Amino acid sequence: AFPDERTIHELIEAQVATAPEAPAVTFGEQTLSYGELNRRANQLAHQLIERGVGPDVLVGIAMERSLDMVVGLLGILKAGGAYVPL
């Protein structure tokens, strides 16, 4: 059992606080640090909130596997929504 009750985005925020330059996600030759992943996901989350995304809102996402897809998933979760892969 995993004892931590925090959400994935709370765990990423905690990692940003301790090691923002550490690699968070690598896809092919591209890598995002925890700090950059968090910054980009926060930016997207704010845009989604402005468009009405929040708790109990489903957000469809149709993307090829990429760093942007990870940013999208995290941004949706940070906005309080739930993602639906299309």
UniProtKB/TrEMBL annotation:
InterPro entries: AMP-dep_synth/lig_dom, ANL_N_sf. Coiled coil: none annotated. Residues 13-86 form the AMP-dependent synthetase/ligase domain. One of its GO terms (biological process) is amino acid activation for nonribosomal peptide biosynthetic process. GO terms for molecular function: phosphopantetheine binding. Pfam families: AMP-binding. One of its GO terms (cellular component) is cytosol. This is AMP-binding protein. PANTHER family: FATTY ACID SYNTHASE (PTHR45527:SF1), NONRIBOSOMAL PEPTIDE SYNTHETASE (PTHR45527).
